[in-house]
Write a structure and sequence with these properties.
The complex is a heterodimer of chains A (429) and B (196).
Chain A lengths: L2 H14 L1 H39 L4 E8 L3 E2 L5 H8 L4 E10 L3 E4 L2 E4 L2 E5 L1 H8 L5 E4 L9 E4 L1 H4 L13 E10 L2 E15 L13 E5 H7 L12 E6 L5 H16 L3 E4 L1 H44 L1 H9 L4 H42 L23 H27 L3 H6 L2
Parallel strand pairs in A: 6-11, 8-10
Antiparallel strand pairs in A: 1-2, 1-12, 1-13, 3-6, 3-12, 4-5, 4-9, 7-10, 8-11, 9-10
Helix pairs in contact in A: 1-10, 2-8, 2-10, 2-11, 8-11, 10-11
Chain B lengths: L1 E3 L6 H8 L11 E2 L2 E2 L5 H11 E4 L11 H11 L4 H14 L15 H13 L5 E5 L7 H17 L3 E6 L2 H4 L4 E6 L2 E7 L5
Parallel strand pairs in B: 1-6, 1-7, 4-5, 5-6
Antiparallel strand pairs in B: 2-3, 7-8
Helix pairs in contact in B: 3-4, 3-5, 4-5, 5-6
Classes of the chains: A alpha+beta (429), B alpha/beta (196).
Amino acid sequence: MRWKKIFSMASENMKQRRLRTSLTTLGVIIGISAIIALASLGEGFRTTVKTRMEQGFELDVLTVIPGSFFAGLGNRFTKEDVQNISNIEEVAVATPVMQRSTVTLYNEDKNTTGLIVTAINFTDFWKVFGDRLIFSEGGLPESIENDTMVLGYKVNNPSENITFAHSNDNVTMQFKVLRGLQQVSKNCTFKVAGLLEKSGAPGATNFDYCVFIPLDYAKEIYEVPSDKQDYVDLIFVKLVKPEFSEAVATEIEELLRPSFGYQLTVLVPIAFVRQVDYILNMLQIFLTSIASIALLVAGIGIMNIMTVSVMERTREIGILKAIGAKNRTILTMFLAETVLIGVAGSLIGVLTGYGLAHILNYILSGFFTPRQSHVFQAPETSRIPMTPLFSLPWTVGAIVFGTVVCVLFGLYPARKAAKLDPVEALRYE
Amino acid sequence: MAIFGPSGSGKSTLLHVLGGLDRPDEGEVFVDKIGFSTLNANELAEVRLRKIGFVFQFFNLLPRLTALRNVELPLALADVPEKESAEKAREVLRLVGLEDRMNHRPSELSGGEQQRVAIARALINDPKIVLADEPTGNLDTTTGWEIVQLMKRLNEEKAQTFVVVTHDPSIAETADRMLYLKDGFIEGVKKGRMRL
């Protein structure tokens, strides 16, 4: 029997039993809707998180730390280590950083605290983070002037409506140095060369709390002993391409192993982003797997209805067999009905699924918005939208999955129909 | 040919065996030189489709299909293109005198008309043999005779063999040959027929 004829007969059969067909199809619609809603929300969430992370981290920048953030810094890097890293072929720039905390800045009657002094080589540092560190006022020191500084956004704007300084202002930095066993308080005056805009998302590279000063001058004012003049705390390494991250990180580890052993950390943002993306992907698959249970329940519904239908149509099957229908023709006729239910249910399910995803997004948005008090303002942790994302592979996958489930559950009753004995079937009342 | 005998004599079973719907415990059935015992279920279905037509006591039409669609069904099973099959179904329905009732469903037709549709369905694939199981058993006498006359006419016009199972001696005696069955055995064979 031709496919067109088989499907037209199947569709006529279904029209005869409108209510039953609609209810069976509804099961499939609910199952596919749940899958599509969760998959599209998950896809949207995953993409947003990934984009945020990519914005938050320079994917082509590695951070090399002696020891670890948590265990504290161990041995210090030397200028030679920086030079060796610079010599790696895939490395564009390697720039050393010295960091100090417990500092207060004064500008006439205003002061700002809770900041990190980041001593850098301005030219190299801006080659690494130039895209992120944008000036709202002023700019980089025009020449290497020791007594110039650049202020991070939150250093200069400790709270709303407060501006600590403007470019060309003279600012006093109060800090502590170690003389022998004693900590001594010290003041130094700097000219503000530039003010930075917000540097973006939080993470290892959030420079909003940093005060940038020249590296060599920092060593001088912090009275670094002559035998430790070479030492730096961190090295930022900019790569030619982010894809080289893992290879270069391994090379750096091997390069520094003789001096540091295993007490060395190389932060590879791309690996972190990949890991988070992987976790979110698994979460998305887990959620849609749960939603698939609804579809399996719908499948059992189809099996039930088709079994009843076979019983009701036993005589019809006998007639068809008597006039020459083969077993596979009967099988195909019943499977055609499950295919129609599967395809129709899946297509409608995809549409309602996207609708449901938007409704869920609207409802869930309320729960995910962080409450911001006057005390704790966190503009960079604004809510992560869960805008559902249309994904062609998920859509096609859901339609195929829905249809396959229907066919699989329809297979048993269809086989039962195909194997009916024609004489017995003709006698069936 | 008529197969005649009392209830329970095995008339219908013999007809089912002849039509390849049932398999005999012993012996062999040949239709157009094809032995049924060597065929599997699908091959038997193919023989039923191409070489045998069935007419049943209770008509056995598909209730949701029109007369035309019911008659077309064997052609659809034989993969005949839709246009061609519709044309042929109309022609056969005209032959059984139902040209005005083609688009009616079985529930809208009288018993006699339904049996005519069933006969048209049996004839549509030009079978070698038409097997009719009590074709008048569910009809009043007048309509029953009309159906018998129709079968005889088609038998003569189209030179098609009709094997009719009946327990009505008056119908059995109209056949060219009559087999008398009792308790599953052929008790007698009679040749020649009565004039209608």
